[in-house]
Amino acid sequence: MTISAQKQYMPGFDNNYLVAGNLCNAFVLGELGSREDFYLMGTEPEDQSNYPILNGTFFDSRGNLLFRLAQNILVENPGNCERIFTDRLEYEIRDAQGNTVLHVKTVSTQVEGVEEAQFLTFVSGTFYNKHGKEVARLDAGGSEEKVREDIKQILGFSSEEFGFVQGMEEEEQNYATYFLAARGLIYEVLSGEIRNQDVELDGKFILDSTLKDCKLHVNTGKFILFGQCDFENCEFNFAGAAENVRQLVYALSGENQD
Asked: Is residue 212 pLDDT above 80, yes or no?
């Protein structure tokens, strides 16, 4: 079977997505990194993997938060959704009533205009914003696919360039490069003043933010500070790889640890 695409935006050599008929190596739909509104991001897998990487925040048709996704994993799940694998390269996320919210399937196929066979990921689902309004309907390249014209979009990414951008201001485009280059490791924006909270820093893009009187947890150390970021009277708790680095810094400095 040969798949045809309406347009191609920076297709990858081995792995691509088909989004509303467009072939691309990476994409963003919606409010990138938001906890409060819909977004969906797909990035190229690392190394020789053929497994897609998807992050996002998902709502139902009433505007209720269903789940947040980070590297295909349900990291928050107030809607009691379930991820079900139907194949090694195929899974569904279903809501508490058993309805499919997100369907992801990767196949090895030939794409029209591309010489070599490659892994192509189809993303299906009807997606809503925080107001319960439909913003996108994806159906594995089907004729009913549509993305609302005013929704923010990126299709295709290479270094610091995009194949197609819609509705994003310059600053948002600037930090979108970090999200896409991190290949799924960064999945959520923190901004503004955050006070008296437990915060997991891993996976966060901390944008012009002030954290006060917070307990901050660091495990992998994979987070990004962007703009003016301040930490006031915060307690840091390190574990895993981050704790190893902390121990090494103390050893090299010759200082005593508390």
From this structure: yes
